[in-house]
Amino acid sequence: MSELPGSVVVSSINLTVTNDISLTVDGFLPGDGSGHIVGIEDLPDQECVCVATAAGDVILCNLSTKQLECVGSVDSGLTTMSWSPDQELVLLVTGQQTLIMMTKDFEPITEREIHQDDFGEGKFITVGWGKKETQFHGSEGKQAAHRKQTEVPPASPSDDGRPRVTWRGDGQFVAVSAICPHTGARKVRVWSRELVLQSTSEPIPGLEQALAWKPSGSLIASTQEKPNKHDVVFFEKNGLLHGEFTLPFQKGQVKVNELLWNVDSTILAVWLEDLKKEKNSETNTYVQLWTVGNYHWYLKQSLHFGSAAKSRLVSLLWDPEIPYRLHALCKGWHALCYDWHWSTDCSTGEESHLVANVAVIDGDKVLVTAFQHSVVPPPMCTFQLQLQQAVNQVAFHTDPTKSTDLAVLDASNRISIYRVGDSTVKDPTVTLGGSGFKASVETPHLEKTYRYFEVCCGEGKQVNPLALRLFTWMQDDTFLAVSQGRLATHAVIHHLTGGPEAEGGCLHLRWSVPVDGDVISLCYNPKTRAVALQLADGRILKYLWGECKILVKMAVPWRNPFLQWARPPGVPLFLQGRPREAILGLTDRCRFFINDVEVASNVTSFARYDEFLLVTTHSHTCQCVSLRDTSLKVLQADFSSSSTPNETLRKVERGSRIVTVVPQDTKLILQMPRGNLETVHHRALVLAQIRKWLDRLMFKEAFECMRKLRINLNLLYDHNPKVFLENVETFIKQIDSVNYINLFFTELKEEDFTKTMYPSPISSSVQLQQCSGQKKVDLICDAMRAAMENIDPQKYCLSILTSHVKKSTPELEIALQKVHELRGTTVSPAAEGVTAEAALKYLLFLVDVNELYDHSLGTYDFDLVVMVAEKSQKDPKEYLPFLNTLRKMEINYQHYTIDKYLKRYKKALCHLSKCGPEHFSEFLNLVKDQNLYNEALKLYPPDTPEHKAVGIAFGEHLNQKHLYEQAGLIFARCDAFERALDAFLSSGSWQQALCMASRLGYTADQLAGLARSLAGKLVEQRKHAEAAILLEQYAQDYEEAVLLLLEGTAWEEALRLIHKYRRLDILETNFKPAILAAQRNYLVFLDSQKTTFTRHRQRLLVVRELKEQARQGLLADETPHCLEADLLSETSSIVTASDMSGKYSHSNSRISARSSKNRRKAERKRHSLKEGSPLEDLALLEALGENIPCSDLFLTGEVHSLLKGLVLFGYDEPARELQQALEAALQLIERSLLEIWTTDLQQNPANPVGACSLMAVT
């Protein structure tokens, strides 16, 4: 704005003039227009604008009162004014080439001369190692040491001579570029915040006026005119050069007015204009946007403002808050505001023949990389397109079948169409292998070039170098683009067509559709032919371009997103319970939306491929979720639980961004912050692709992918067992490699990997498992072995051996036999079979040699044994004598010796049984040593002496294990009745003992003695009724039998014997006193149980009341919704938990190593009935629960029989008393049940005491 006679404030909302304050009225600027402004700064804290004039005045313009105040003046005039980024300091450059540092209140801090003879505080130190003549000078050679330093030429005539000032982003340092009065060349000096010189740049010929310090603080940018090129160069803070790139102009063609970094240091804007060749000639102005990636500078956008006077650029600056917003002001008062964002230009097709092309704009070149063929980091590429002008936009064809075709829009509004077709003429604009890289791919050719209407600055026309934006290739020769409307808040959608309708190479404007709003992004769905438009106010419009209709779709709470349609063909996204189209959007603040619902808040990039949505996050992860049969709630849950490790989540490098996903492959291309590329194979994509291949019976592709990416090969079968078994021959023919088939065998496991390691998606079909009870590994081995034997048994000999070895029970004998059979066959050189030696060597690789030797010995084939032993490390002196000894033995005894050596005792026992009676003692010893009694009994008929001998030995073995009853049965089978009698006596089987006594011919006296002995043992076991039977029937002592029945409370049986033997006197002497004594005992027991139950119940109520009071007191001290209040229950409290943890935590650690008896004792100690104990309420519940089963005993036959006896003999009053006592106890318990075991306790499954007690009562 140096040539304008006033200060203008432009609104950032609608770009209209709101204030006009004249500087000529008060005399700050002369009215003839000779004065000019050298600096202007907006001070929002003071609500004013600071203006510095060339005459030396520093003026504050109040925006609210429109008052002007001169806060200072410099007599020598001012050339530059620059405020620090924090607006705490202001630096003035005077006409006397001095620097004045002032505070924001315009109080001087210090003043320094610009031109200093000293280098500064950062001066380099020479340590004196060697002379200049002895140093290495690189490619310049030794002559460089003797070459005199050339003088730096003066600045270019196009240099305006004014000093330039730029601050570092943190405001700690400031760089000043000024022309040295002695040499006439520019130098850059770096000063501290206190104006202390830090460094001076090295002499650089051709250094120009532009200067910009990168906000991140690493580099200072300037320009240098070299003999044959024009460069942008970079300085370090110490004044040394550090990198450069060349501007795409010839020497002397343009001059650089300014360099400007955006606020996050990612874009460098270069403002250029043509040098005037003649006095009255018009000059073009340009703005170029450069970015760096992988140490290469790219020209991403080039804006040509033309040569018209009104379109001449007079001011350019980046927005201080929004990183990618660029403001430009033209001389004709046209204000332009550009919002840029990063986008990835990639082909969108998903067919198998596509190559996943990604285009990168690099000035007048388009670098295209086909990621399906090769993954190379930029600036390398597969091929490049050379254009005549700088490229601004690239659009791939949206038709999935033609997505390798692309259209290029350059800075002169020309559209170049490149197609992949049958052209045989080599296109000179297409070059293979940029930067030395070459790949054999099908390249496109330039088919035609269209022009768009010229942009002029006539009346009613607006200046906009970027006339078309959001350029989209819809169909063949049909394009969609957006331009600015007549109002700043309006846009126009243009339908442009080429082909026959394009006259003179100009695109035909088919129609234009105005949009009430500023379109900031769009995306096209080729399936539905719908275009989603997003406006700056947040509205999403659905534009049906075939019908030329605009429908309001929704309003979303996000801006500046990257839009995509979420619904690929055949993959419904369920929103609010029904499938429909959806819009995916990502804001510049990393918030990811589906329509108007925020799904995640830390997403840095996303891509949709097939049924999957892939995102990268700030937590340095890449997540892949399926959109098939899903909903927004499910997606939100998936992203919120991203810390859970599973196949959908993987770690990536910090700052990774998604570039593209290669169609029909598993490659995901990521770009790192520096610019290099990384290829990852996301587990979710890999598994999905493998499942597709398996469904299509493409076993070879699936196997190679799984082998390469280390996916367990069990998935080949587990994905669909039935289909695999039905197509085993197809699998073998496709793999067609013995090594690969053997690899598959070696990885087989019984585990179902679709349920453990690789769980199938919810939407996948139900996996069909084999119906038979055969194990998985055995089933696969048998099926594949049968198929290989059917196809070519010689070729797949090693795989057949592997199938035998890998079974759950390895069939090593069969495998060895097959190897042995190969010894008799010859293999021709043309055949694909293997020799016996090779097969045996392979078998030794699978199985331990000692194990294989043992199994070969188990085949009883000594030739096979020798063949295996020769391949092992065994000493012939060790195994040959052993084999010779075996050859001399009888065949059965030989097999017995081998089986015993191999510890196959069952087989050895079978062979030994055939060796004759002379080896029976050895047979019996083997049976006893190995406990093979059951097997031995089967080898001899039951009536043979050998069978009886084995049986007696078996019985003795059972006696030693205290299994007396089983031993007695075995002895009885072998006619060893004496031993059987002893065994039955030990087991208490009195019936069997009496049977054995009968078989032994016992007399009556012997039977009576035996009966009395057995009765005594039964009484000890409280089996009085059985003891009475023995005394009555075998000892003939009915009186003793009656007394035993009375002792055992068998009242009715005692009455039967009394009347049977007509001993009614026993009724008076023994029976009646016994029932009266029993009645009194039951009354005492009931009374004690009732008293104990009442005492425990009352104490339980008191304990619960105390704990409730404690809980209420705790709640009173806390907030009404404290977390601890929800954790309290009827049976515990905070005090109880703390006491218990402090008292028992250490003791439990000691008790854990003790016996179960001690652990039960410790458990009882914890549940103590002592008043005030921590778990007293639980102990009371346990005690009350024990009382109820005891009371329930009165409902059994004992009391019922006693009551009948009392009534029978007229003891009505004692019977009534006992009945009433029983009913009172039961009623007390019944009334107390709900009081003791409340509803909460009954519904709580964690309380076993209450559950068991209630079950006992009911």
Terminal residue distance:
98 Å
The gyration radius over C-alpha positions equals 50 Å
**Class by alpha and beta content:** alpha+beta
Percent of residues in helices comes to: 25-40%
Which sequence of strands runs across the widest sheet?
A: 26-27-28-29-33
The number of helical elements comes to: 36
Overall form: elongated
Oligomer: single chain
Average pLDDT for all residues: 81
Strand proportion? 15-25%
Report the uncertain regions: 1-13, 454-460, 567-577, 763-768, 1118-1154, 1245-1258
Largest sheet: 5 strands, antiparallel
Counted beta strands: 56
Summarize this structure as a short list of keywords or feature phrases:
disordered C terminus, four-stranded antiparallel beta sheet, alpha+beta, disordered N terminus, about 1250 residues, 56 strands, nucleus
